[in-house]
Amino acid sequence: xxxxxxxxxxxxxxxxxxxxxxxxxxxxxxxxxxxxxxxxxxxxxxxxxxxxxxxxxxxxxxxxxxxxxxxxxxxxxxxxxxxxxxxxxxxxxxxxxxxxxxxxxxxxxxxxxxxxxxxxxxxxxxxxxxxxxxxxxxxxxxxxxxxxxxxxxxxxxxxxxxxxx
Length: 165
Description:
By secondary structure, the chain is α/β, with parallel strands linked by helices. 30% of the residues lie in helices and 21% in strands.
């Protein structure tokens, strides 16, 4: 099994090779699946990551536009992906939905992030009713090293499918 650092390097390089049009196309497909999957009438609070375009993350702008146009009353908090200092992790909040970026994932709902443990701590310290990871299908790996503190996702959405662990 590959170690986390090797997996990160390999998959971030592959993600970096995506063209702007590929990122846009995949992001639209992924967010459309997310929009279709979620029962938005039941969502009061959501936490969404702020897209790091230079890292070719799945773009959240389509989702943010959808929310502002259709569900302006949903409280939407933004999280700065990797650049947030760990001491600024909110604690004790309740979120109906948390949208999480990732570098790699497996079918069991495990995720690999950038290596700072931000989202593992975030999910552990808040009442997150549902955590959904957004990724490109090529980020799926068969085996992922998992540690005790790693938090599982409830759902993973790629441009090809919705994965329910």
